[in-house]
Amino acid sequence: MGLALDGWMVEWDPGDPTSVRVGPWPDRTGWTRNWTFKTGAYDQDGSATTPAEQFGAMMTIFALLVVRDGLDPALLHREFRKIDAYRAQVGHRIDGDAEG
After folding, report:
1. Is residue 1, in this structure, part of any structural domain at all?
2. How far apart are CA 93 and CA 48, in angstroms?
3. Cβ pair 25, 41 in contact under 8 A
4. Is there a cis peptide before residue 26, judged by omega within 30 degrees of 0?
5. Domain for residue 37, yes or no?
6. Which residues form the domain of 53?
7. Does residue 75 lie within any of the structural domains?
8. How many distinct structural domains can be found in the chain?
9. Is residue 19 a contact partner of residue 35, using CB atoms and an 8 Å limit?
10. Is there a contact between 41 and 9 (Cβ–Cβ < 8 Å)?
């Protein structure tokens, strides 16, 4: 079991396109590295209340990290696969795994 749609965060440094990690929010295990930026489920403005809206907000974050900050999309994809909803809706289409 991976991360819930309302229980993930991503941390990255836009100066290094390989510096991205996705993990649980809140961070109770110390997995974060204090890179420049963090966002995730906790940082939504309250308008994303349904799972579909939360998924859309998550995909917006993914696109911003690739286009605006120049992060490696393949690496970002591998990290976002830790989020159950991403893996179920997107991961299996790219990776071909039957589980999602």
Report:
1. no
2. 24
3. yes
4. yes
5. no
6. 8-26+44-95
7. yes
8. 1
9. yes
10. yes
Instruction: Give the global pTM.
Output: 0.86
The type of residue at 16 is D
pLDDT in tens, 19-55: 899 999 988 998 988 888 999 987 766 666 788 989 9
Rounded distance between C-alpha atoms, residue 78 and residue 22, angstroms: 9
Residue 64 lies in a domain: yes
With helix as H, strand as E and coil as C, how does the chain read?
Answer: CCECCCCEEEEECCCCCCCEEEEECCCCCCCCCCCCEEEEHHHCCCCCCCHHHHHHHHHHHHHHHHHCCCCCHHHHHHHHCCEHHHHHHHHHHHHCCCCC
- CA quadruple 73, 78, 84, 85: dihedral, nearest 10: 20
Rounded CA-CA distance 16/24 in Å is 22
**Beta carbons of 32 and 23 less than 8 angstroms apart:** yes
- The total of other beta-carbon atoms located within 10 Å of residue 78's CB is 14
98 Cβ neighbours under 8 A, 6+ residues apart:
92
